[in-house]
Design goal:
The chain is of the alpha/beta class and about 375 residues long. Helices cover about 35% and strands about 20% of the residues. Strands 5-6-7-8-9-10-11 form a seven-stranded parallel beta sheet. Strands 3-2-1-15 form a four-stranded antiparallel beta sheet, sandwiched between helices. A two-stranded antiparallel ribbon has the order 4-13. Bound molecules: 2-succinylbenzoate and magnesium ion.
Length: about 375
């Protein structure tokens, strides 16, 4: 295949409610969508998960635009590609910028599956026909608000609740949740809000029977996490710290975590995601698919990835309506009794809606 034209769009979509983590809060989601058109006239789609502010990692919507416009798109346009695995080799001379790279790579994977007439899930080697949906709930104004949300999502069937924690919104909140919902599958994500100085508090979380604690310590750390994991019973799950297969290998060797959250954008694409998935399977670590408040395009990629067999734990991939009044794909992603049906149509298996995309596009540029 050859990409003969690429359309890059900058979208702005308002979420139903603000999302608040230990690093900040926002409601207007800005992101890039990439449409790659091949020499047969088929379109493949990728979504950049970089935010407009570099608070999750160093990438932003604008740095992704720069990388794509000035380096990644010129490197890939009109190149003969026989398999999507080649995309990371083509980009390997460029350091990091994984979310920008993943935007192109995702579109190439979608196109590859469409050219073969199979679903993206099948192209990746996934077997599941449906996947379990979990949900990530941001920090709320009051504990009562949080309990109400958990109750609602539990009634919708979500398979596990993840709450965001930070100093001052941790032990007392988890205690209230456990009082009201003693059995609900529960985990906590700190987005790096703690240090080893907080060891006593982190030990105290053991009493809440959490499935895991996600990224409690610094976003670039695997050494302190290994020390922490030795001191606490709750499994440590790494998110921000893992950017590659090599990071995962080192974290496993050090004992920094017992679980890994795989985000396609953070690790530079689906090929690298699959390599990390396979490595974790060899070492007996379960993985799950993280989320970055994606639109339907990124969500579709997450669903396809989650069909791989070592995605044992429910991920953060929820239904479109949890985030958006109107998503940009048809049909939208629907959660029924806590399950999402994996589409079997070619590629990502959802149709991008050009009218809706146009409505949310603030800027676009074509490359040939
Ligand atoms: O750490 O997993 C995270 C959202 C924004 C930034 C970081 C994270 C998250 C989530 C939301 O937890 C997951 C989702 O619903 O997409
Ligand atoms: Mg996280």
């Amino acid at each position: 295949m050859k990409l003969t034209k690429i359309i890059l769009r900058h979208l702005k979509m308002r979420m139903k409610s603000p999302f608040t983590t230990s690093f900040g809060s926002f409601q207007d989601k800005e992101f890039l969508l990439l449409e790659a058109i091949d020499d047969n006239g088929l379109s493949g789609w990728g979504e950049s998960v970089a935010f407009h502010i570099p608070w999750y990692n160093e990438e932003t919507v604008k740095t992704n635009w720069h990388m794509l416009e000035d380096f990644l798109i010129p490197a890939i346009l009109n190149k003969e590609i026989s398999h999507p695995d080649e995309v990371s080799d083509i980009f390997s001379y460029i350091r990091k910028n994984n979310m920008a790279k993943s935007t192109v790579e995702g579109a190439v994977w979608d196109l590859y599956a469409k050219e073969k007439g199979i679903s993206l899930a099948a192209a990746l080697g996934g077997q599941k026909e449906e996947i379990e949906a979990g949900i990530s709930i941001g920090i709320q104004e009051t504990v009562e608000d949080l309990l109400r949300l958990i109750d609602g999502y539990a009634n919708e069937g979500y398979k596990r609740m993840k709450i965001k924690i930070k100093p001052g919104w941790d032990v007392k909140v988890l205690r209230e949740i456990r009082k009201r919902f003693p059995e609900v599958p529960l985990m906590a994500d700190a987005n790096s809000a703690y240090t080893l100085e907080d060891i006593d508090l982190l030990k105290a979380l053991d009493e809440f029977d959490l499935m895991m604690i996600e990224q409690p310590l610094a976003s670039d750390d695997i050494v302190d996490h290994a020390r922490l994991q030795k001191e606490i019973k709750t499994p440590v799950c790494l998110d921000e710290s893992i950017h590659s297969y090599e990071d995962a290998r080192k974290a496993i060797e050090l004992g920094s975590c017992k679980i890994i959250n795989i985000k396609i954008g953070r690790v530079g694409g689906l090929t690298e995601s699959k390599r990390i998935h396979n490595l974790c399977r060899e070492h007996g670590l379960p993985v799950w698919c993280g989320g970055m408040l994606e639109s339907g395009i990124g969500r579709a990629h997450n669903i396809a990835l989650t069909t791989l067999d070592n995605f044992i734990l429910p991920g953060d991939t929820a239904g479109s309506s949890r985030y958006w009044e109107r998503d940009i794909i048809e049909p939208e992603v629907v959660v029924e009794n806590g399950w999402i049906k994996v589409p079997d149509k070619p590629g990502i298996g959802y149709e991008p809606n050009y009218d809706t995309i146009k409505e949310f596009t603030v800027f676009e540029k074509s490359f040939t």
